[in-house]
Amino acid sequence: MSDRKLETASPPTGHNRIVLGILLMSLAMLVIPSIDAIAKFLTGIVSPGQVSWSRFIFQSLLLAPSALLAIWAIRRSGGPAPSITATAIGPIWAHAARGALISIATLLFLLASRSCRSPTPSRSSSSNRSC
């Protein structure tokens, strides 16, 4: 057996945190517009309600492991830090209302993108919509 200590990964500090932040922000700014483009494309095939519902279900499924891991880590460490309390986070009904309003806004955005298609030459000029 060697006398070497097991090295654990430490959280990024200083310059590494800045680089990590830049990389994560760049990745997010590439992924989010792609999701919107796919959603707009799908509204021509599937109903906007189904696209909106599927979008939020898949986002929840992708986020659930991270949330569960964070909850596990907080409980394992003996509870949340003093700065992370129920009053700092806010009442749960406010988060539920925010989520409902975001989903309604997404649904309305998809409905609008479905009804505002660019005109194609094969359609008659009377059926073309301009938004």
Biggest beta sheet summary: none
Question: Roughly how many Å apart are the termini?
Answer: 73 Å
Tell me the total number of β-strands.
0
Choose one word for the global shape. Answer: extended
Estimate the strand proportion.
under 5%
Mean pLDDT: 76
Q: Radius of gyration, Cα only, in angstroms?
A: 22 Å
* Unreliable stretches: none
- Sheet/helix structural class: mainly alpha
Give the SSE order as H and E letters: HHHH
Percent helix: 55-70%
Supply the number of helical segments: 4
Characterize this entry briefly.
With 131 residues, this protein is an all-alpha fold. It has four helices and no strands. The N and C termini lie far apart (73 Å).
SSE blueprint:
Layout: H1 15-42, H2 48-76, H3 86-89, H4 92-115
How does this model look, in words?
It is extended and about 50 Å long. It has helices at residues 15-42, 48-76, 86-89, 92-115. The chain is built from 4 helices and no strands. Helix 2 packs antiparallel against helix 4. The longest helix is centred in the middle third of the chain and has 29 residues, at 48-76. It is mainly α and 131 residues long.
